[in-house]
């Protein structure tokens, strides 16, 4: 596990409550301001205090959005770091830790780092995080005078004494870092951008929230459940600016029903939850199919069954979204893979819901939601909004039969017509019916839109020379970044990749795109059985020759995907 010359991977480890996230929160804006390419991701235990949590920050020669197992610099605050992370260290890893607290865990790579002593010198234990920041800045090689202004702004509202103590703490850490001879051998990629101010620092939760705002979302309802809660809080903080009604429901059943009520009245409604919460929304999801009412449901996936690993990542809810709700009705499912794709995909989800009057699911996961990087302003796409509402006439029929199965959608109070909605089977006016003939016609009407959904599905992202590849690696959701980097580092024309941001319905040309069975197809997904591989086979007839699966609660690393793809061709 040797370091790449264009990549420098740092990991900060500590117990919940020790402020590991504070180090990252201060470091990332400094990296952005100084023009570095970087990517950050976190993993943490399900506890308020204690445990062992880590944040990885990669500085890269070009833009990356992937997790790497290799650690070039480890800043350890607990002895658990050495047990948990030993397999990620290499001979040249530089380890900063207080030896008196770690004892036999430290080896020759460990630099005795008096964080506590330096923090006390700065004003108290609370400044240990800022001392650590100073050490990291020194190792990276960012001049301290380029950071002091930012730090002063960050702590300004806490009073002048706190400001000065933090400046002293970062200076003490910086001086310590400069005196570490081993640090001079580390190779950190140079800044790649001249003006970091043209970039936005963003995480996955914010990306989905921005996409929802851009799509015209004006109602969100949720019962909090990690990791989906962040989308609720993001929109709640901005509700006054964008005219968004925010409702924290008493449970998930109430949340989806409130969302459907708002949509029935004309709102562009969003519900956010996790897999366990979506379990409770099944009847409401089915209701959306029956009353042909658009709604977007965001599922922040995490490992199950039951509570599982509530703060880890998995792609285990695709089958749940695909088969959710009793009865048969149309739906669409999206799964963005990068932050810029998350902004765009959320807009597609709202437009699809509005255009086809169906429930739409957006799948993310803890890894993507908590990931942070920079996005250029011009990378954020603003799509036209699908309106989909008409002014009704007096003889309006909400479920009138049409050639494409889509009835012009009216809402109460906008026009002279009556807009009925009923969960029972109904006729064109929305009145309950027991007619077998009407039942069949209404079923055909609701399912007719599946063909149009398939024809207009988003095309997948092709990575590399697909026409000449022997192996096609297929990813969906948050594995896009790791697949792109693995293929780039392999540099082997035998491999190409296809990434799906819309996982259902699949386009009619899916089989042809993947080679009609003439190529090896390796499907990469974070679940135990291969849910997308199953879907791919059912919808297109393409049988995956290899299923690259992981269900530990961790994301795939670049190193893992490279190794697994080599196994595909080498046997």
Name the helicity range.
Answer: 25-40%
Instruction: Give the CA-CA distance, first to last residue.
Output: 22 Å
SSE class: alpha/beta
Q: What is the overall silhouette? A: globular
Specify the CATH architecture of the largest domain: 3-Layer(aba) Sandwich
CATH-derived topology of the largest domain: Pyruvate-ferredoxin Oxidoreductase, domain 3
Radius of gyration, in angstroms, nearest whole number: 26 Å
List the helices and strands and how they pair.
Blueprint: E1 7-16, H1 20-33, E2 37-43, E3 50-60, E4 71-76, H2 80-85, E5 89-97, H3 99-102, E6 110-112, H4 115-122, H5 128-140, H6 148-155, H7 160-178, E7 199-203, H8 204-214, E8 219-222, H9 229-237, H10 239-242, E9 245-248, H11 252-264, E10 269-273, H12 275-279, H13 282-291, E11 295-301, H14 318-323, E12 332-334, H15 339-356, E13 359-365, H16 366-370, E14 372-376, H17 436-455, E15 461-463, E16 471-476, H18 480-490, E17 495-500, E18 502-504, H19 510-513, E19 520-525, H20 531-540, E20 546-549, H21 558-570
Parallel strand pairs: 1-4, 4-5, 5-6, 8-9, 8-10, 10-11, 11-13, 12-13, 16-17, 16-19, 19-20
Antiparallel strand pairs: 1-3, 2-3, 2-14, 7-14, 12-18, 15-17
Helix pairs in contact: 1-5, 4-5, 4-7, 5-7, 6-7, 8-9, 8-15, 11-13, 18-21
Notable characteristics:
Rossmann fold; globular; 571 residues; 20 strands; Pyruvate-ferredoxin Oxidoreductase, domain 3; alpha/beta; 37% helix; 20% strand
């Amino acid at each position: 596990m040797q370091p790449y010359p264009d990549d420098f991977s740092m990991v900060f480890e500590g117990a919940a409550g020790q402020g590991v996230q504070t180090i990252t929160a201060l470091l990332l804006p400094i990296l952005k301001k100084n023009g570095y390419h970087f990517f950050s991701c976190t993993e943490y235990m399900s506890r308020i205090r204690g445990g062992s949590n880590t944040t990885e920050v990669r500085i890269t020669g070009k833009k990356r959005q992937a997790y790497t197992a290799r650690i070039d610099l480890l800043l350890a605050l607990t002895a658990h770091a050495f047990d948990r992370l030993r397999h990620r260290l290499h001979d040249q890893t530089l380890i900063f830790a207080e030896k008196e607290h770690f004892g036999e865990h430290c080896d020759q790579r460990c630099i005795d780092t008096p964080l506590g002593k330096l923090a006390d010198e700065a004003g108290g234990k609370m400044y240990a995080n800022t001392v650590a920041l100073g050490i990291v800045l020194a190792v990276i090689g960012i001049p301290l005078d380029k950071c002091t202004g930012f730090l002063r702004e960050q702590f300004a509202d806490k009073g002048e004494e706190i400001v000065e103590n933090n400046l002293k703490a970062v200076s003490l850490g910086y001086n310590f870092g400069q005196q570490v001879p081993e640090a001079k051998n580390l190779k950190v990629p140079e800044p790649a951008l001249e003006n970091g101010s043209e970039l936005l620092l963003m995480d996955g939760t914010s990306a989905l929230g921005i996409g929802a705002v851009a799509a015209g979302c004006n109602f969100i309802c949720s019962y909090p459940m990690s990791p989906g809660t962040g989308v609720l809080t993001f929109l709640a903080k901005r509700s006054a600016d964008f005219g968004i009604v925010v409702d924290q429901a008493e449970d998930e059943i109430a949340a989806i029903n409130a969302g459907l009520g708002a949509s029935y009245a004309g709102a562009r409604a969003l519900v956010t939850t996790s897999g366990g919460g979506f379990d409770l929304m099944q009847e409401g999801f089915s209701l959306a199919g029956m009353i042909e009412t658009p709604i977007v449901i965001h599922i922040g996936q995490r490992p199950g069954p039951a509570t599982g690993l509530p703060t880890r990542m998995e792609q285990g809810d695709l089958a749940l979204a695909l088969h959710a709700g009793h009865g048969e009705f149309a739906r669409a499912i999206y799964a963005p893979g990068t932050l810029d794709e998350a902004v765009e995909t959320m807009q597609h989800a709202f437009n699809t819901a509005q255009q086809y009057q169906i429930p739409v699911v957006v799948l993310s996961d803890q890894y993507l939601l908590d990931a942070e990087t920079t996005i250029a302003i011009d990378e954020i796409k603003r799509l036209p909004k699908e309106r989909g509402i008409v002014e009704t006439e007096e003889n309006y029929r909400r479920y009138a039969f049409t050639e494409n199965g889509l009835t012009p959608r009216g809402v109460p109070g906008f026009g002279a017509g009556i807009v009925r909605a009923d969960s029972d089977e109904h006729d064109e006016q929305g009145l309950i019916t027991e007619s077998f003939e009407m039942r069949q016609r209404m079923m055909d009407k609701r399912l007719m839109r599946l063909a149009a959904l398939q024809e207009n599905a988003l095309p997948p992202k092709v990575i590399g020379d697909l026409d000449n590849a022997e192996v096609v690696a297929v990813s969906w959701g948050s594995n896009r970044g790791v697949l792109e980097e693995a293929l780039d580092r392999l540099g082997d024309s035998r491999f190409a990749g296809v990434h799906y941001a819309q996982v259902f319905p699949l386009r009619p040309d899916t089989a042809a795109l993947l080679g009609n069975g003439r190529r090896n197809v390796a499907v990469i997904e974070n679940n135990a059985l291969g849910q997308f591989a199953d879907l791919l086979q059912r919808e297109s007839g393409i049988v995956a020759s290899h299923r690259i699966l992981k269900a530990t609660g961790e994301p795939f690393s670049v190193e893992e995907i490279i190794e697994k793809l080599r196994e595909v061709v080498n046997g």
